[in-house]
Predict the structure of PIG-L deacetylase family protein.
Amino acid sequence: MTDDPLPPLPEDFSTMLAVAAHPDDLEYGAAAAVARWTDQGKTVSYLLLTRGEAGIDTVPPEESGPLREREQRRACAAVGVDDVVFAGLPDGVLQPDVVLRREVARAVRRVRPEVVVAPATRDWGGVPDQADHRALAAVLLDGVRDAGNRWVHRELVDEGLEPFDGVREVVQVFAAEPTHAVDTSATLDRGMASLRAHETYWEVLGGTPEQMLREGAAAVGARQGVASAVLVGRLPLRPQE
């Protein structure tokens, strides 16, 4: 990858669905971009596949789940998001299967977004990504496409969720091979406030990675000629003009 600036992500959309496996996953870079988009008047909804109940070793899941859900809702409020749905799948054991595809399809049919955004899965310093993240990445595109097929997950129609095939692209934050960038200069602080909203989680872990994220955003921003930015990978689902 060269150090040349990447083109800005096209922002001619009005509705977006953000999907992640756990509370706090979208706060690693995506939240600052979400704040930019809500400031533009776009509607952004969140789907959290789990409540992150297995994420705090010293807190039992029956206590941790509600706690982490509350913190995620506060994190969303910091970036202008009030539509937050928790699918309630079991934390730590997500599988790249039809159950996961159905939850993605259900959310797409409900929100009817033009764009879906999610964290990319990749190795970090040679260490493979967490299992739930890999499971989501493996089925995300299939789940988005399932949303448009009446004959897949037929029970969704019984729930009143008609097929929807209007998603034009999936955007992966921190993609291993980024194609575009998002300027977060004006909204980075709100993205970091969203990260800090997970206060109990970070207290147990001994502190947030805020400084690392700020430094990373500044480095990407320098490449782009702005104060801060995040790199994304764009996966079009429709032919591009």
Remarks:
- Helices lie at 30-39, 61-78, 98-111, 131-146, 155-158, 188-196, 199-205, 210-224.
- The chain has one domain: 15-236.
- The CA atoms of residues 216 and 230 lie 8 Å apart.
